[in-house]
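Review box. Two proteins, two foldings.
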Amino acid sequence: MTKESIAVSLDQVSLPDKVRVDLNDFVAQLLDFYKGDLLSVILFGSAVTGDFVEKSSDINMLVIYSDLNIANLNTVAGFAKKWFSKRSFAPRFISKRNLTSSAPYFPIDMLEMKDAYVVLYGEDLLKDIVVDPKKLHGQLAYEIKAMRMRIKQQFWSSTGDVVRIKRILLERFTSIIHLSRSLLFLKKKATPVAHRKVMETACAEFGISKEFVEMMFNLKNDKVRLDGQKAVQAFTDMMDVIRIIDKNVDEVVL
């Protein structure tokens, strides 16, 4: 695949011009670096769903090989260091065999990838992966209950550190978006891919606070400043949202 053909694939996604140029160059160099061992490069995540924020979003990719070993990863270290210092590329390197054997155990990730991705090079190795609702429910139940157990601990450990509080809130909110989408899928509701649409639907279906969701999107986009009082309220509201999702997960009947 040529650099020009990668650019054609990138026409399917909405990204800033600088990001598009860097991504095109990155994939072209990746192909040249790995040559015959490379089977597929797949773009997914916020770069595809339309939720990309240049200052904070990673550029997520699956980089799939016929075989991948430690020697390969060691060799790529210099190449990776160069690009990571320039742009937040987050490629997941995996062999085809490992992808096939691991996919059933990561149904939330697979659901997110399968519903919004662009093949930049090679084979479409996601199209035949099937998401098992029972395994999805199991992982969803574990993730939301683990979050519910840890959120208060995270609040206590970060009290007074506004920067850390903001990071925790945004990380947990991103997880909530993905978990909400999986829950909508299990309840056979509309499952949009854009994050705002996901949370608008979750608010309507599960009774999640619209005000909290809007505040979190504003926080993500640096449209609101977080002080001590707002941080406490945000954590309180987030605990309520986690509890609501947990309750709905327990009510799922498969």
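Next protein.
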Amino acid sequence: VIDRSNIKLEIWERGAGYTLSSGTSSCAAASIVCRLGLCDKQITAHMPGGKIKILLDDQWGVTMEGGVSKVFEASLVPEFLEEIKM
């Protein structure tokens, strides 16, 4: 927690490792710090990959707003898709 409206995160995702940013993780962290009374319901999550704004409503619903960027591109061979259908 930086202050009542800002948190700083570094994220380790199971199966993926260190991740520059994650909306899901940021929303979860914002919900927790707000629920603990450490932050207000409008929070900016700061991560190495950027920042997002998170708004929590009175029923603990979450709205997230921020930019996106492509970090990976891939091509799948048809054989890979056939394996998935099995």
